[in-house]
Model the fold of this input.
Amino acid sequence: MRGPGLHGPRQSGPGTDGPRPSGPGTDGPRPTPDLASRPLRRHGEAGAHAGRRVLLLVSPTAGRGRARRLGPRVAAALGREGLAVSTVTTGSLRDATQHARRAAPGSIIAALGGDGFLGSVAAGARESGAILLPLAGGRGNDVVRRLGLPVDPVRAVRGLAGYAVADIDLGRVNGRPYLGVAHVGFDALANEYGNAARVDLGPLVYLYGGLKALWMWREVTFTLSVDGSERMFPGWFVAVGNTGQYGGGLRICPRAKVDDGLLDVVSLGRSTILAVVLTFLRSYRGRHLGRPGIAFARGASVRISASTPLNVYADGELVGPLPAVVTVMPGVLKVLVPAGSPVLS
Done:
């Protein structure tokens, strides 16, 4: 049964009847002010989503084409919920950010792609004041999973009437906003190897990358500062979590909340290869905190450097070389999530 309030005009086909957003590659005006300004309910408020226009942004490459293949079905599902859909297949992550940046305040952006794509759309939505609906179109889909949304994007759209708007934090590493985890070390090397895999292994690509990284890793000394408290240690990785999950299900920062104005910092010091493997196996259930070698901290500003040149990643995408400065932007992003999301305080 559909929830109350979703009774806007229906469409005869996915993403064909509504006006298209303005900007390069589009030919129509932005959503009209009366639709864009209709309030969505927030957690604890009565009512539901009114019929309104939705911009569906689709990644052409996420999940080796999975998002692109699912795009028409997702657009049709949005139409069946009484929403007027404009669909844009983006040309790049930067293009996705630009489209989200031009969206009308209070309008909905449904982003269909992987974690890096969702982070890029979130960066633009933060500036425009649009409301983000994250949809799983990648391989790991960790942000969607951790927010408590269905991994099937069509099913996620069908549940739209039960979602509410939450104001959540964004992380920022060296100036780049991110939703999930910024990380450096062994796990970042695993990410590089996974991204370079020539065979489509789905979420197992992270296991492949991890095994190869174990073989290639050499000890590194990190310098880590959290809100001015600094320490140096030989170790394997540093992860700074907002939603706190990455790598196809690794809850590396299991206590992370997206509305507390803080980042969770988890690091692994000197350990045997067996201990490293056990750490990551335990992290699938978030049970690695408190184990030997694991350190936990929480703060609003994090600085990371290392004795060896290393790259830092965020939402699975390369940010650049260390040193890294990671900060939090409290409550700057409006996102649609189900009640009881595990990352809401």
Q: What stands out?
A: The two ends are 29 Å apart (CA to CA). Residues 1-50 have pLDDT under 50 and may be disordered. DSSP finds nine helices and 15 strands in the chain.
